[in-house]
Amino acid sequence: MEVPRVGHGVSSPTSPCEDMMKNLSLEAIQLCDRDGNKSQDSGIAEMEELPVPQNIKISNITCDSFKICWDMDCRAKERITHYFIDLNKKENKNSNKFKHKDVPTKLVAKAVPLPMTVRGHWFLSPRTEYTVAVQTASKQSDGDYAVSEWSEIIEFCTADYSTVHLTQLLEKAEAISGRMLRFSVFYRNQQKEYFDHAQELQNNKMLPSVKDNSGSHGSPISGKLEGIFFSCNTEFNTGKPAQDSPYGPFRFEIQAEALFNPKTNLYFGDFYCMYTAYHYVILVLAPEGSPGDEFCKKRLPALDIADNRFLTCSTSEDGQLVFHHAQDVILEVIYTDPVDLSWGTVAEISGHQLMSLSTVNAKKDPSCKTCNISVGR
User: Fold this and answer.
1) Rounded to two decimals, what is the model's pTM?
2) 283-297 residue pLDDT tens
3) HEC states along the chain?
4) Is 7 domain-assigned?
5) Which of 20, 301, 354, 376 would suit a FRET pair with 315, their CA atoms being 20 to 30 Å apart?
6) Domain shared by 133 and 75, yes or no
7) Does any domain span residue 368?
8) How many domains does the structure of the chain reveal?
């Protein structure tokens, strides 16, 4: 496929950004450089009769694609052969530091009927703000382009992972989950002040709070789902919870069946790592019909509570509930309803507080091949 000869002088409507743009799956789209400005490029000429795109509309936004359309003077449509699209991440203090400064952000697309779909595994990240502007262009007989002025700059934000993308993450997590170990309690570590506050001001209850932004950038539960984090992993040699914790020296323990039973639905929420060999799986336990259950039904893959690779609740021959967790991943379990402290016990643990292991607002390693999928972090 021929690469349009637009040279190094295509101007941008915005300041150049350093975001990584590597391919676009839209048919007949090419990339061009973004340095310099068009007044310095003898190969691109302005033609007033080429219409400037007006009233730009962005629609059908997913985590890695969007549709774009605009209005323009129909009298010149037959002269338009290409569209130039300038797509940039909106700069912010928390922008991804893994960038390639010299990667172009301009797209050259053949003039196809609108709306046009822009799609690309590495172009777009989920839950990310972008700016976009458009030029119309006419390819000349010598291979150069005549272009319109840039359109207005439009801002939009990409969407969360869909259940399709989460299912891809789920399959990756299942591949490393390992053997299942038996356990009997869920536990939550915190500072003493946390439990004192629950006793004195919250009617002796731990209340759900909004999940932080740890984990995959596109996870639909981050900043939206309300719940209480619990752990259930046990030490291989003792079969009991570890005595060390990054979250506090006081531990609330509750029998597993109080939170996990046949009246509880189980959902897969995320799979990630933090630049270490350890991988984390986030699961959601939601009582049937609860607000958390309704939230998860629309957004997360459901798991069979008796038959999955992470956390199971099954019935033994004598009618007792039996619980197992995956050995080779660290499970973070979110329970979506309030939990009364009287249902369990609070006691000080004897281990160390290992703050380096905390996952609060932890960022996922975007380069890990084990826990990333094709649509980004």
Assistant:
1) 0.79
2) 999 999 999 999 999
3) CCCCCCCCCCCCCCCCCCCCCCCCCCCCEEEECCCCCHHHCCCEEECCCCCCCEEEEEECCCCCEEEEEEECCHHHHHHCCEEEEEEEECCCCCCCCCCCCCCCCEEEEECCCCCEEEECCCCCCCCCEEEEEEEEEEECCCCCEEECCCCCCEEEECCCCCHHHHHHHHHHHHHCCCCEEEECEEEEEECHHHHHHHHHHCCCEECCEECCCCECCCCCCCCCCEEEEEECCCCCCCCCCCCCECCCCEEEEEEHHHHCCCCEEEEEEEEECCCCCCCEEEEEEEECCCHHHHHHHCCCCEECCCCCCCEEEEECCCCCEEEEEECCCEEEEEECCCEEHHHCEEEECCCCECHHHCCCCCECCCCCCCCCECCEC
4) no
5) 301
6) yes
7) no
8) 2
